[in-house]
């Protein structure tokens, strides 16, 4: 026997998603906002009914999206369904907010990779090669412009800048994950607000000072750092993986460092302005500030600084 209320809710939320998709496709600039909102209908549906029902709804919505604009609508729908389902399932299972964030990030990352791959397959355009061509064209244009105003740059300097810009593409996995972290956070926060408003729930992120990464992440970081001591072939998959893992974990360690700075000054009952000034100073003076935050994060996780502070209280 069919659950009429479940079907009705699925139809309403599917229609809301369709409106958001149409807005994204046909209103320029709207995607800057809707990319965070499109997973929310699936978050809400999964929160109420679990992931199995949402996947059925997702398949139906994906098939319907073929009728709108196949090239981009299907990848966007897959992104919204995966991200929304992972966040919603974590809420459905009453997971911790940061655990929900991690699960949602996995879903959104898979969605972004799917989006990237499908766009290349459908359009038959290699985005990596296209980016490298743009870099070469921009360097030629920049060199011509600088020469016209009397500034000469040696070919060696041009080649060095060009190589650095092309190397950015090697960080594509890291970039996708960073985007996924940001998208998931905004989507999850907005979903919390909607569910709290409509259903009188008390969903919220705990204070950022309470963020605590697992100790295993230090061992992963140390192992990848050890690989950097060897002369790896820059074009190898191993070097590619090591570079992305170290960058991603480095960012996480930096976030852990920021969390500890906030925790420390909160523990000391200092003015909130003090840690904010320190964090801003660290971010402005990159990369030194970021390295300092990473070190603080590593020490915090590895040596249990918070527990030590608590024992001294």
UniProtKB/TrEMBL annotation:
Pfam families given in the database record: DUF2232
Transmembrane segments: 12-43, 55-88, 100-122, 168-192, 213-232, 238-265, 272-293
Entry keywords, A to Z: Membrane, Transmembrane, Transmembrane helix
Protein's UniProt keywords contain Transmembrane: yes
Entry annotated with the keyword Transmembrane helix: yes
PANTHER family, sorted: DUF2232 DOMAIN-CONTAINING PROTEIN, MEMBRANE PROTEIN-RELATED
Protein name: Membrane protein
